[in-house]
């Protein structure tokens, strides 16, 4: 009996070409689904963080200091530098880690804080991030708006560094109370994505670099008129914008084409633009 006819080389190449074309068509769709899942997980992390901050505020009648810069001479002339993301740990199901931190000592004090500050906290890491480093934080506190030279946006000067919600604590400024947020909690940003701010991997990378870590500082004013630009404090790896949490713990996706005037308005707590800013944000 004659054997069955097999594929010719040309037919096999055609089939391989068709399969490759189908894979090429499907891959972008698969990537979009994966990014959608990562974006959802990222939003949930930010929501947990905002809710933990709200619980902190409810219990203490004030928001945590964005960063402790209150001098305590002679040992701590610039304060302990502990960040708000360190202060809310007990309300983020990280009470055990918080118990290992001595908040009266500098954030990386070798007596114990240094080791604690290097721990990974899942709620502080966006799944879309690329870089990996110790103590990573992909979310930062918004301390105000400091947009210099942006058309139509009022420049607040030094006051713009601390006219937000999570402001540094020093001799001149203290933690913000809900009553201080005259624009309304639902119209004032608390925190936002600021992904992959830390040191890029490399032989010259400093493992002690504090940039982009949850234990230290981790707050600042939005200094760019647009989200996801190189100089923007609010930035992500999500296409089209970045996620942000308002002071009432509501999380929204802010478009990178958002009007800079509106962006500046929602970064400040007392600018008097509550109605306009709230109406312009989804």
Class inferred from helices and paired strands = alpha/beta
- What number of structural domains do the residues give? 1
Largest sheet: 5 strands, mixed
Largest sheet, spatial ordering of strands: 5-2-4-6-7
- Nearest-integer average pLDDT: 89
Can I get a quick summary?
It contains six helices and seven strands.
Please write out the topology.
Elements: H1 9-60, E1 67-68, H2 84-87, H3 95-99, H4 113-117, E2 139-145, E3 168-169, E4 189-193, E5 219-222, E6 241-246, E7 251-255, H5 260-267, H6 274-280
Parallel strand pairs: 1-3, 2-5
Antiparallel strand pairs: 2-4, 4-6, 6-7
What are the defining features of this structure?
282 residues; alpha/beta; single chain; two-stranded parallel ribbon; 29% helix; 6 helices; 7 strands; 5-stranded mixed β-sheet
């Amino acid at each position: 009996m004659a054997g069955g006819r097999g594929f010719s080389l040309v037919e096999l190449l055609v089939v391989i070409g068709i399969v490759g074309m189908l894979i090429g068509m499907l891959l972008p769709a698969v990537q979009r689904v994966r990014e959608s899942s990562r974006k959802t997980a990222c939003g949930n992390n930010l929501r947990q963080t905002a809710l933990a901050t709200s619980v902190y505020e409810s219990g203490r009648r004030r928001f945590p200091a964005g960063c402790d810069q209150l001098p305590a001479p002679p040992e701590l002339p610039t304060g302990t530098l502990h960040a708000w993301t360190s202060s809310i740990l007990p309300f983020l199901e990280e009470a055990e880690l918080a118990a290992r931190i001595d908040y009266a000592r500098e954030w990386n004090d070798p007596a114990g804080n240094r080791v604690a500050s290097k721990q990974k906290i899942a709620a502080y890491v966006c799944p879309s991030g690329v870089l990996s480093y110790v103590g990573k934080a992909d979310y930062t506190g918004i301390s105000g708006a400091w947009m210099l030279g942006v058309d139509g946006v009022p420049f607040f000067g030094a006051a713009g560094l601390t006219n937000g919600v999570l402001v540094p604590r020093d001799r001149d400024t203290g933690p913000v109370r809900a009553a201080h947020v005259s624009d309304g909690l639902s119209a004032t940003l608390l925190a936002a994505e600021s992904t992959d701010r830390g040191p890029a991997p490399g032989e010259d990378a400093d493992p002690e670099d504090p940039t982009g870590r949850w234990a230290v500082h981790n707050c600042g004013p939005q200094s760019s008129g647009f989200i996801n630009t190189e100089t923007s404090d609010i930035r992500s790896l999500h296409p089209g914008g970045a996620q942000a949490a308002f002071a009432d713990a509501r999380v929204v996706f802010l478009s990178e084409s958002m009007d800079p005037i509106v962006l500046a308005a929602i970064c400040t707590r007392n600018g008097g633009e509550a109605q306009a800013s709230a109406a312009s944000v989804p």
